[in-house]
Amino acid sequence: MANQNSLPLYEKYWYKHNYKRVTESLLFLLLLSLLAYRIISFNNYSFPWFLAFFCESWFTFSWFLTLATQWNPAVIKTYPGLLLQSVKELPAVDLFVTTADPVLEPPIITVNTVLSLLALDYPSHKLACYVSDDGCSPLNFYALQEASEFAKFWVPFCKKYDVQVRAPLRYFFHKPKFSTPEFNQEWLQMKDMYNHLSHKIELDELRKSNGDFEVFSDTDRTNHPTIIQVIRKNRECVADGLPHLIYISREKRPKHPHHFKAGAMNVLTRVSGLITNAPFMLNVDCDMIVNNPKVILHALCILLDSRGEKEVAFAQFPQQFYATLKDDPFGNQMAIFTKYLTAGIAGLQGPFYGGTNCLHRRKVIYGISPDNMEKGSSISEKDLKENFGVSKEFMESAADALEGRACLPNDINISNAVDIASQVANCGYEHATAWGKQVGWIYGSVTEDKLLGLIIHEKGWRSELCTPTPIAFTGFAPGGGPTTMTQQKRWATGLLEIFFSKHCPIIGTLLRGLTLRQCLAYMWIINWGLKPVFEVCYACLIAYCILTNSNFIPKDLGMCIPIAFFIIYKGYTISEYIASGLSIRAWWNNQRMSRITPMNAGFCAFLSILLKLLRISETVFDITKKDLPTSKDVEDDKDVGRYTFDESLVFLPGTTILLLQLTSMVIKLLGLQPLSQSGNRCGPGEIFCCVYLIICYWPFLRGLFETGKYRIPLSTVSISTILTYLFVHVCRRIIVG
Ligand SMILES: O=c1ccn([C@@H]2O[C@H](COP(=O)(O)OP(=O)(O)O[C@H]3O[C@H](CO)[C@@H](O)[C@H](O)[C@H]3O)[C@@H](O)[C@H]2O)c(=O)[nH]1
Ligand SMILES: [Mn+2]
Questions:
Q1: Are the C-beta atoms of 654 and 704 separated by less than 8 Å?
Q2: Domain check: are 119 and 57 in the same one?
Q3: So where does UDP-alpha-D-glucose get bound (predicted)?
Q4: Sheet architecture: strand order including 462-465
Q5: Are residues 39 and 153 in the same domain?
Q6: 277, 359, 286: which is closest to 317 by C-alpha?
Q7: ω before 91 within 30° of 0 (cis)?
Q8: Residue 88 in marked binding region
Q9: At what angle do helices 684-696 and 584-597 cross, to 10 degrees?
Q10: Same domain for 506 and 416?
Q11: Which of 259, 369, 530, 712 is deepest in the core (most CB within 10 A)?
C-alpha cells in the first residue's frame, strides 16, 4: 500500500489464521467424502439417498462459499493525525438519517442519533445533517426542533469534556468516572435538560403545538406533499458552531411507488445536492448512534488517501450493537459474522455496503466508474437531464459534484435552495430519469444496500472496512421472535431479488468488473435465501425416513463421516466463540437459531420470491421495531430472552417441522413403524438427527404450551397440524403403494 508521492493515510494488513483454514478445509473434505460415499454405495440407492445427496451437495457448496469468503481476512489501520497534517482543507460531509415510522422507531431514538451526529469531531460548518422522515410525523419534526435547542448546550459540553458517546441516551446510562466540582455541576445540569427533553418528546407534548405544525395539517403518511424545513442553520458559518439541521418528508401519494428506503435515500441525495452538495455523504439508520466522534476522520483517511482516492468507492463501518441481551438469545448480534466473515470480505474487493454506517462519495452515487474518474470527461447537458431530471439547479449541482467543484460553505443560501429542493423531493421527479436505475440507490430489492454495493463493485470500485477503536457506531439489535424473523425474512427476500435480477453477481463477474472471489462472497450472503429450501427438505427427509422406516444416514463405516463432521464442526464453532470472549451459551443460542431462523424466515422469503416471480404479489420493506434500551433491572429479567411469537405465517414452517419430528418420534416409540421392505431400515442416525432438531426447536416446543405472546398462536398450530397429518398420510400411502 506504500505510495511514493505521499505517506499513506491508511494501511491494510492481510493476516493468516492457519488453524481456521486447516479446520475449515478438513470440514470441506469430509463433506466431499460424504458425497463420494453416497455415489459409490450402489446398494443404498433409494429416494431418500438421492434427496440427501442433493441437499448435501448444496450444503457442500455453501461451505465452500464460507471457506472462500473467510480465507484471506484483512484489517486496515487509519491515521487521522496524518490526514490532518496532509490535507489543507477538510471536505464537506453531508449526514443522512432515515426514519420511517414514529411508533416502530421512537422519535427519542432518532433524536439521539442526530445529536450524536451534530456533536461529531469535525468542523461543524462543513457538516449538514438531513433527516428523512417517511412517516411524515409532526412528532419527529417537533422532537428534532427541541433537540436542536438542546444541542446548543449538549455539543459544547461534549467537546469541552471530550465525551466519547455523544448520544445522551447512552451517555447518561452510566455514572461518569471523571469528576471535578465544575464537571459534576454541568453534568447534572445536562442530565436534567436531557430528562426534560425526553419527557417532552415521550409524553407527546406536541399537541400543545405552535405555528410550525401547520404544514402537517391534513397530511396522511401515505398521502402528503413534500415538507422541507430548515430546523437550524449554521448562520455564522463557524467551525465550532452547530451543523445545519434539515427535516425532509418527501411527497407521498397512494398508487405512486416510493421504493422504501432506497427512495428516501435518493431524495436525501438530491435535496442535499441542492443545498450543500458535499462530496462525501455519511448515512445512518435512525438507531445507529455514533460511538466514536472521530468516525469521519477515520473514513476520510481511506477516501482521501492518494490510492484510495482512485480505487475506493466507500468506507463501511461494521454494524455493532449496544444494550444487547445477554448471550444473544435470538442469534442476531452477529458478533462472529463481524469478526470473521466481514474481515474475510474486507480482504477481497471490499465489504458489502451495509445500508448504514457508511461514507460514500457523491460522484460514485451519481454513477461514475473508476475509468470515468481517470478520463475526467465532462458531461453534456443532455446527459445531465436524462440522468438527473429536469431541475436546472440540480443539473448544475450534479455537474459540480461529478467534476469535483466543491461548493463553499459561505456560498450557500439555504432559504433559496429549500424552495427549489421541494421540487426534487416530489414523487413524480424521478419519472424518465436514471434515478433508481443507474443513478443513486438502485430500486428492485428490499436490501437496497447490498444491491447498491454490488453495482458499485461491478463497476470495478473497491470498498474498505473501517474499524477504529473505540467502535464507530452502535445500533439496536431486535429482540423477540417476530421482530427478528421480520428482519431476517426481509434480508433473505431482498438478497433473492438481487439473485434473480440482471444485477446477479454471477453476471457481474462474467460481464462486468466484479472479481470472482467477491462474487463468491456475494453468493455466500445470497445463499441466506437459497439454503433454507434445502434445510427444510432435509428436515422433512428425517421425518420421512422414520415414518417409512427407511434410511438416509450412512451405516457401518460410512457413518464415521457425518459423526466426524458433526464433532469437528461443533468444536470449531465453539472455539470461535471462546476466542471472541463469548460464552458457550451464546454459542448454543446461535447454533440453535441458525437452524430456526433460516427454516422460518429464509424459507418464507423464498416462497415470497416465487410469488413475486409469478407476479402474484410484490415484496415490501417491513420496518424493524426499535425498543428503547432497557434499564439495568429489566436487563436482569429472564423473560426478555424468551422466545415470542405472533400470528405471522413466518412461524408456520418451523412449527410444522417440529410437529413432524414429534409425530415421527411418537410413532417410533410406540413401535408403529412399518416393516422395512429393503434392508435399509431407519437406524440410530435418523433418530439422532430427529432428536437434535427437536432440541434446537426447544423454544418452539415450549411455545406449544405457554401462554400469551410466548405461545404459538392456535391458527399456526392448526395449520401445522393439518400439514403434518397430510405428510404422515402421504408417507403411509407410499409404503402401502
Ligand atoms: O420505507 C422506508 C423503510 C425504511 N426506512 C429506513 O430504513 C432504515 C433501516 O430500516 P430497519 O427497519 O432498521 O431495518 P434493518 O433490518 O435494521 O436494516 C438493515 O437492513 C436494511 C436493508 O434491508 C438496510 O437498509 C439498513 O441500513 C440495515 O441496517 C431505518 O432507518 C428506516 O427508517 C425508510 O427510510 N423508509
Ligand atoms: Mn436497524
A1: no
A2: no
A3: 105, 134
A4: 227-232, 244-249, 127-133, 93-99, 280-285, 358-361, 312-316, 462-465
A5: no
A6: 359
A7: no
A8: no
A9: 100
A10: no
A11: 712
Mean pLDDT in residue range 152-161: 96
* 461, 477, 493 - which closes a domain: 477
DSSP 673: P
Residue in this structure with the C-alpha cell 442519533, named with its chain if needed: 113
**Residue written as grid cell 411527497:** 251
pLDDT of residue 1: 38
Place of cell 398462536: 713
208 has a pLDDT exceeding 70: no
Flag whether 105 is marked binding. yes
Residue 89 in any domain: the answer is yes
Taking the CA atoms of 363, 364, 367 and 369 in sequence, report the sign of the dihedral they define.
positive
- Where does a domain end: 462, 477, 492? 477
Q: Is 245 helix (H, G, I), strand (E, B) or coil?
A: strand
**Residue 601: DSSP 8-state:** I
C-alpha cell at 404: 469535483
Taking CA atoms only, the protein residue closest to ligand 1 atom 10 is: 623
695 and 599 assigned to the same domain: yes
Q: Are 299 and 466 in contact (CB under 8 A)?
A: yes
Bridge partner residues of 244 (DSSP): 128
Q: Where are the beta strands (DSSP E) in 10-126?
A: 10-14, 74-78, 93-99
Kindly give the number of the ligand 1 atom that is closest to the alpha carbon of 622: 12
Residue 345 domain-assigned? no
Q: With beta carbons less than 8 A apart as the criterion, state whether 400 and 365 touch.
A: no
Cell representation of residue 589: 443460542
* Secondary structure, 3-state, 138-204: HHHHHHHHHHHHHHHHHHHHHHHCCCCCCCHHHHCCCCCCCCCHHHHHHHHHHHHHHHHHHHHHHCC
97 and 136 share one domain:
yes
Please check whether residues 190 and 257 belong to one and the same domain. Answer: yes
Cβ neighbours around 486 below 10 Å, total:
20
Pocket-testing residue among 285, 286, 319, 353, ligand 1, by greatest number of atoms within 8 A of Cβ: 285
Shortest-distance ligand to the CA of residue 355: 1
CB count within 10 Å of CB 400 equals: 16
Residue 674 lies in a domain: yes
Beta-ladder partners of 321:
475
Q: Residue 660 is part of which domain span?
A: 18-71+502-621+643-736
Tell me: the pLDDT tens digits for 565-587? 999 999 999 999 999 999 999 99
98 lines ligand 1 (CB under 6 A): yes
Q: Count of domains in the chain?
A: 2
Question: What distance in Å separates the CA atoms of residue 708 and residue 508, rounded to the nearest whole number?
Answer: 48
Q: Is 261 assigned to a binding site?
A: yes
Q: Which amino acid is at 680?
A: N
Residues 88-140 pLDDT 10s: 899 999 999 999 999 999 999 999 999 999 999 999 999 999 999 999 999 99
pTM: predicted TM-score of the whole model, two decimal places: 0.95
Same domain, 434 and 510: no
In a domain, 347, yes or no: no
| Per-residue pLDDT, 122 | 96
CA distance 519 to 538: 27
Task: List active site positions.
Answer: 134, 449
Q: Give the position, in ligand 1's atom list, of the atom nearest the Cα of 624.
A: 12
CA of 418 to the centre of ligand 2 (A): 29
| Contact present, 366 and 398 (Cβ < 8 Å) | yes
Whether residue 415 sits in one domain with residue 301: yes
| Residue 449: CA count within 13 A, CB half-sphere | 20
Alpha-carbon distance of 102 to 141, in angstroms, equals 10
